[in-house]
Amino acid sequence: MACIRKRRGKYVVDYRDGAGIRRWVTCKTEREARNALIDKAREARQAMHPVVDPNITLSAYAERWLREIAVTIKPKTQKSYGLALRLHILPTLGSTKVRMLQKGRIKSFLIERLHQGKVRTVTEGEFTREVRLPLARDSVRIIHATLRALLNAAVDDGIIIANPADKLGRGLRLVVNAKTRQEEVKAMTRDQLSVFLGAARN
């Protein structure tokens, strides 16, 4: 049953949506929470029927998503999406249910890629060791754009109600200029492709 709980000075609306999935909305005031509760109760009465399993993992959804967008985007863009997923996103987040992905986890994931996103083997005399190096910022921008586009589709499919990858680019300095903001993913340069493929070999 939907209810309002007070937690750490804020009001949390605890409810289940039309698909039966438990959701939470945090409000600053009790009045705001009561209004939200009324709205969510009304929405819940309008049963939602997601076109995919609400418990689908990111790996399974990514496979479905890539197949669906193949007819609507350029081949180079699809290749960029596919590489970002295969080499960086899915090895870390693939087993997570799409509806369980949170903004904080995605932010931490992107920061990790900025600090130590690729592995390089260094030989020193008779010894070899692996050194973790930062990914190029443009490469992380492509990773973020891929996640954002995929999760936008998940919103459309009724799996999640908001995109947790939204509004992270500026804070992480992944938005470079106006032209970049207008593009979801650019075709990779040779250097970017080399970085991505280099990660796959390690």
Structure characterization notes:
This protein is α+β, with helices and mostly antiparallel strands and 202 residues long. The chain folds into two domains: 3-47, no CATH class; 58-184, DNA polymerase, domain 1 (Orthogonal Bundle). It is 48% helix and 16% strand. It contains seven helices and five strands. It has helices at 30-45, 58-69, 75-93, 103-116, 137-156, 178-181, 190-200, and strands at residues 3-7, 10-16, 22-27, 118-124, 127-133. The strands form two sheets. A three-stranded antiparallel β-sheet has the order 1-2-3, covered by helices on one side. A hairpin with a 2-residue loop joins β4 and β5. The longest helix is centred in the last third of the chain and has 20 residues, at 137-156. The chain starts with a strand and ends with a helix.
Please summarize what this structure is.
By secondary structure, the protein is α+β, with helices and mostly antiparallel strands. 48% of the residues lie in helices and 16% in strands.
List keywords for this structure.
202 residues, alpha+beta, 2 domains, 7 helices, globular
Poorly predicted segments = none
Radius of gyration, in angstroms, nearest whole number: 20 Å
Helix content: 40-55%
Described by strand count, sense and barrel closure, the largest sheet is:
3 strands, antiparallel
Number of separate helices: 7
What is the string of SSEs from the N terminus onward? EEEHHHHEEHHH
Instruction: Predict the CATH topology of the largest domain.
Output: DNA polymerase, domain 1
- The computed structural class is alpha+beta
Separation, N- and C-terminal Cα atoms: 49 Å
Assigned CATH superfamily of the largest domain: Tyrosine recombinase, N-terminal domain
The top-level CATH class of the largest domain is Mainly Alpha
| Fraction in beta strands | 15-25%
Estimate the global geometry from the Cα principal axes: globular
Q: What is the averaged pLDDT score?
A: 81
E-strand count = 5
CATH architecture of the largest domain: Orthogonal Bundle
Number of domain modules: 2
Widest sheet, order of strands: 1-2-3
